[in-house]
Amino acid sequence: MTDAGKAGDLLAQIPKGEQKGLPPVHLWNPDFCGDIDMRIARDGTWYYLGTPIGRKPMVKLFSTIIRRDGDDYFLVTPVEKVGITVDDAPFVAVTLEVEGEGEQQVLRFTTQVDDQVEAGAEHPLRIELDPQTEEPAPYVHVRSNLEALIHRNVFYQLVDLAVPREIDGATWLGVWSAGEFFPIGPQP
In angstroms, rounded to a whole number, what is the distance separating the alpha carbons of residues 59 and 112? Predict the structure, then answer.
C-alpha cells in the first residue's frame, strides 16, 4: 500500500463517537506496520510526503492519535501503529494566557492544534540548554510523555513574568503557575 493510502486508512480507523476527549491511544497495542513519510517540523508544521498538511482539522485529528514510545513517535489506532518523524516536540505552545499574579498566578498555554494546558504539577515547564550555544529550549508537558516546545515569542512573555527565588543557595529567575515555581535560569 502507498503512503498516501496509509494516511487515509489511519484516518478511517480513528473511532467515531459521542464522547469528548482524546482517544485512549495508551490502551491500544496494534502491530507495528512500518514508518510512513510524515514529519512534524520544529515549528509545529505537519508534513506528509514532503508537503505541508494544509488542512488544520486533519492535523488536529492526527494529533489526537500520536504516541511516544521511548524516543520514537507513532500514530496509533486500534488496528495499526505507524512510525513518524518528529524534529523536536510534536506540539508548539503558540499562545499564553496569564491569570492572577505571584504564587497564585496560572499560566495557560495553547498549542498549534488548539490543545490547552495549565502549567503546574501535572504539566510542568522545563528548560533545556543547548550545550554549545547555551540557547534555551523551553517545553511544557502536554499529555502522557508528549511535550510542546514553547514558541520564542511565548518564551519572551515568560521571561517578562520571571521573578527571583532562591533555590539551593542560588538565585534563580522563574515563573509561578498553579502554586509551582519553574526556574528559567540563574539570575545574572
Answer: 10
Extract the C-alpha cell encoding 68: 511516544
Beta carbons within 8 Å of 115's beta carbon, 6+ residues apart: 63, 91, 142, 143, 148
Whole-angstrom distance between the N-terminal and C-terminal Cα of the chain? 57
Of the candidates 105, 88, 109, 101, which has an alpha carbon nearest to the alpha carbon of residue 153?
Answer: 109
Q: Strand pairing of 91-99 and 146-150? A: parallel
Tell me the pLDDT tens digit for each residue of 135-156. 899 999 999 999 999 999 999 9
Cβ-contact 108, 118 below 8 angstroms: yes
pLDDT one-digit tens code per residue, 7-46: 556 555 555 544 468 999 999 999 999 999 999 999 999 9
Angle at the Cα of 8 (from 4 to 10), degrees rounded to 5?
115
Query: Are the C-beta atoms of residues 66 and 90 closer than 8 Å to each other?
Result: yes
